[in-house]
Amino acid sequence: MIKLSNISKAFGRNQVLNNINLTVTKGEVVVILGPSGSGKTTLLRCVNYLEKPGDGEIAIGDFSVNCKHARKKDIHQLRQKTAMVFQQYNLFRHKTALENVMEGLLVVKKIPKEDAKQRSIALLEKVGLGNKLDAYPSQLSGGQQQRVGIARALALEPEVILFDEPTSALDPELVGEVLAVIRKIAKEGITMIVVTHEMGFARDVANHVVFMDGGVIVEEGTPGEVFNHPREERTKQFLKRITPELNYSI
Amino acid sequence: MKLDPSFIWTAFVQLLGAVPTTLYITVVSVLVGFIIGTAVALIRIYKVPVLYPIAVAYVTFIRGTPMLTHLLLIYFGLPVLIDGLSAYFGWSFRSVNMPMIGFAYISFSITAGAYMSEVVRSGLLAVDRGQIEAAHSVGMTTPQALRRIVFPQALAASLPNLSNSVIGMLHGSTLAFTVSVVDINAKAEIVASTNWKFFEAYVAAALIFWGLTVLIERLTAVIEKRINLYNRGGVV
Ligand SMILES: Nc1ncnc2c1ncn2[C@@H]1O[C@H](COP(=O)(O)OP(=O)(O)OP(=O)(O)O)[C@@H](O)[C@H]1O
Ligand SMILES: [Mg+2]
């Protein structure tokens, strides 16, 4: 179980996250929705400690970090329990697909090379890239790169995988292949927090939908609750804008 | 005065004896300079307290003054420092025991460090921020991320500039003659002084420097091809 308590973050005087509380149970797929600038990316980055929260606590299982007094060791441990799939993929450019997946296993988990290699090959096969092991990122399409990114995250066997708009940098015809992979691993019971604008995907993969606006969680619930019976005015407005074909009684 | 082509060849052969000296000076100053430069670049990028202003002053001072001046400052200043320290701590070492080439090593390393810090810094800045973030996200520590992810890419990005620095230091090493080190250029003067065929001797020296420079460029091209495979997306 992952528990975020009172997470706050400001950039200078711009308060981007304001007392965020969120509980994610094991195996749950949480989808975070919200307008641009609402703090979704920042929240994910805080969980991975790529951004240092100003305040709050991040707990994963019985491990917890108090953001005010986080030591290097805590941050290191937190990062090992979380993995990130980036909007811009951020694959290691000078490493092949296989090396990208192996890197964390070798350097962080200190797994013997042959073992790491076999595991990485299996993961790349799982995301449909068994034939691209030796390709460099520059030789792969965006969709393929993102699938390597997913394999790289899976390799670490984290407690939770964080996806920040994993398909929004992709050409429309490549979105499907990446979503299919995410769906597949969601079914395997891997805990994930996904920021996305893909409403169809959110509806049928999410167990838990969170709507953020202005640095706070405005509303959360099951997809049925949030999509079909939003309670808050801001949620209704947002859903109306993003899915114009649906009509919500206001 | 008549040109004596055969003396070019005679001088060429004699100058070869001084090639190791030139290469030692170049290699030492480039290697030490690269280490200094990397440290200075990291200090500047991470804005390390206390060291940051020192690093900035070092780079601006060295880049703002000629290499020959550095050599003379070291040549005349270092003995005072060494003998002063020796006397204070009761060491037996005296500056007169220091080989002349030592002044060239120290001074040119300091020169190279400042120039290389700029090269390394721009190489590091050329690496996308997302790379180190991705390294952190898989659980690497910052030193691991720098060593395994950032430095290799920075090196690839700065290779052309590094190669230029090496060539600059090779040519700059000729200044060592001012502290009586016999490099290729100084040797040319010595070889010619017996028969006044300076032009021929310097033609020979020029040919050797040219050859060494071409060699460095070739070597760079080979390394670049290997290291940059991933950029061009394929085996060329
Ligand atoms: N490194 C930063 N420095 C300063 N301000 C930042 C930084 N990163 C984000 N912000 C600000 O924080 C706010 C929230 O940004 P964030 O990227 O978290 O929003 P988002 O919900 O992910 O938006 P989008 O849907 O456009 O990706 C914005 O106002 C943004 O300008
Ligand atoms: Mg975002």
Automatic annotation (TrEMBL), chain A:
Record GO cellular component, one term: plasma membrane
Protein name: Amino acid ABC transporter ATP-binding protein
GO MF annotation list: ABC-type amino acid transporter activity; ATP binding; ATP hydrolysis activity
Top-rank taxon: Bacteria
Pfam families tied to this protein: ABC_tran
Membrane topology: Peripheral membrane protein
InterPro entries reported in the protein's UniProt record: AAA+_ATPase, ABC_ATPase_HisP-typ, ABC_transporter-like_ATP-bd, ABC_transporter-like_CS, MetN_ABC_transporter-like, P-loop_NTPase
PROSITE patterns: ABC_TRANSPORTER_1, ABC_TRANSPORTER_2
Keywords recorded for this protein, A-Z: ATP-binding, Cell membrane, Membrane, Nucleotide-binding, Transport
SUPFAM superfamilies in the record: P-loop containing nucleoside triphosphate hydrolases (SSF52540)
Organism per entry: Paenibacillus agri
Location in the cell: Cell membrane
Residue span, ABC transporter domain: 2-239
UniProtKB/TrEMBL annotation, chain B:
Keyword Nucleotide-binding in record: no
Superkingdom in the source lineage: Bacteria
Annotated GO biological process: amino acid transport
Record-level Gene Ontology MF annotations: transmembrane transporter activity
Membrane protein topology class: Multi-pass membrane protein
Ranges of residues in domain ABC transmembrane type-1: 19-220
Keywords linked to the UniProt accession: Cell membrane, Membrane, Transmembrane, Transmembrane helix, Transport
Name the record gives this protein: Amino acid ABC transporter permease
Species assigned in the record: Paenibacillus agri
